[in-house]
Amino acid sequence: MAFKNVLKSVVLICLAVFSLNVSFANEGEKHKKEELNIQHHIMDAHEWHLWGETSVYLPVILLDGGLQTFSSKELYHGTVIKAEGHHAEEEIEYIANTEIGYAIFHEKIYKLNANGELNFHDGHPTNAKPLDFSITKNTLSLFFGSTIILLLMFSTAKFYKKNGAVAPKGLAKFIEPLIVFVRDDIAKANIHNGKHHKYTPYLLTIFFFIFINNLLGLVPILPGGANLTGNISFTIVLASFTLLITLFSANKNYWKHIFATPGVPIALLPIMIPIEIVGIFAKPFALLVRLFANMTAGHIIILSLISIIFVNQNAAWGFLSVPMGLFISVLELLVAFLQAYLFTLLSSLFISAAVEEAHH
């Protein structure tokens, strides 16, 4: 049974890589003279591109002297304008719609000037940007991932509510071991004196939230995927939650170690205190960079390997790039779990240090 499950996973990944080939091939036919842009496939967007000319245009919500709402189709189907880049021989392209007064450049929305154009300095637009509250591809993926987590948890809770403390079946067979693992091997093992009960719900939430969205993040190897956990805004918010919980949970002993470190001469405190304060923010910074960098790097490597076929314009390269891409895809399945585990584990360690009582 285990071998069959592994075989199914490998087949699905093979199909995913094949679909990526088809996706690149279609775009290669459409843009034969254009350079392959891997960043385009992993960045956020105001449309959800599926395949070929098929896209789902998402709602644009702007706060610009009032609430402005319209479909992103009005931006993407505007007029393509070319401007002079940072160098004289460099050309910049952006899409503008003079009827609504906005342009889109590198998936950022800018207000057009009186001439219906964008002004550039050193290759960057200098026009004003309205406050953007749009439902982007990553936002939609966030809602989708959250819905999956809620369905998994409510389904598991419903099973135990109906059957009581029995051997798990169905989804519960998969969810219960993970819940017990996070509770016993992460929360309880690191946050002592029974204090783990208070923080276990948070640790469970971030573990499943990151794990499920990491798995969904593997979908960028298919047409229409989103790279949510590879978005630094997403990881900043998660790391900020851990920081806030750590600071608001910190006891007297924690702050004593920050501002009056035991065993440190008073003369050295002016040096130690700034270092300790920097350390408070360095820990969540390491959390957000680790998750962002690892998930983004995996996607870039897979896309780069498959791009070899089209860069060299020779299908024979597929015998090298596809197996290598498949290997990295399988490795990414491990990374998806590992990054969720590390983020949760380190969060529990930071919280543990904040609530630990003084040792006498």
Key features of this structure:
10 helices, 59% helix, globular, three-stranded antiparallel beta sheet, 13% strand, four-stranded antiparallel beta sheet, 2 domains, alpha+beta, 360 residues, 11 strands
Strand order in space, largest sheet: 5-6-7-8
> What percent of residues are in strands?
5-15%
Low-confidence stretches: 5-35
Question: Count of helices?
Answer: 10
Q: What is the share of helical residues?
A: 55-70%
Mean pLDDT: 82
Number of beta-strand segments: 11
Molecular shape: globular
Compressed to H and E, one letter per element, the order equals: HHEEEEHEEEEEEEHHHHHHH
Largest sheet composition: 4 strands, antiparallel
> End-to-end distance, in Å?
54 Å
CA gyration radius, whole angstroms: 25 Å
User: Which structural class fits the helix and strand makeup?
Assistant: alpha+beta
Number of separate domains: 2
